[in-house]
Design brief:
Helices cover 51% and strands 19% of the residues. It has 3 helices and 3 strands; from the N terminus they run βαβαβα. It has helices at 10-22, 33-42, 59-73, and strands at residues 2-6, 26-30, 47-50. A 3-stranded parallel β-sheet has the order 2-1-3. The model has no long low-confidence stretch (mean pLDDT 95).
Length: 75
């Protein structure tokens, strides 16, 4: 399972990532909303862990973006 961790606090991101990687998941990180949007456009994710208070693009705006993409992809 591929997980995108979107969290601007690198300490929290690493802690979450180590825990999930130890459980067998593949994790990638984004530290702001723009970086996350770019990674979401380029890859398919099984799960996105999303902080709401992000620099550049808020987590709320990113959530709307993800939701719109999912609506386009679903039949």
């Amino acid at each position: 399972m591929n997980i995108l961790i979107v969290e601007d606090d690198k300490t929290i991101s690493v802690l979450i990532g180590k825990t999930l990687t130890g459980a067998g998941y593949i994790c990638e990180y984004a530290y702001d909303g723009e970086e996350a949007e770019d990674l979401i456009d380029k890859h398919a994710w099984d799960l996105v862990l999303l902080d709401l208070m992000l620099p550049k693009v808020s987590g709320y705006d990113l959530l709307e973006y993800i939701t719109a993409l999912l609506r386009l992809r679903l039949p």
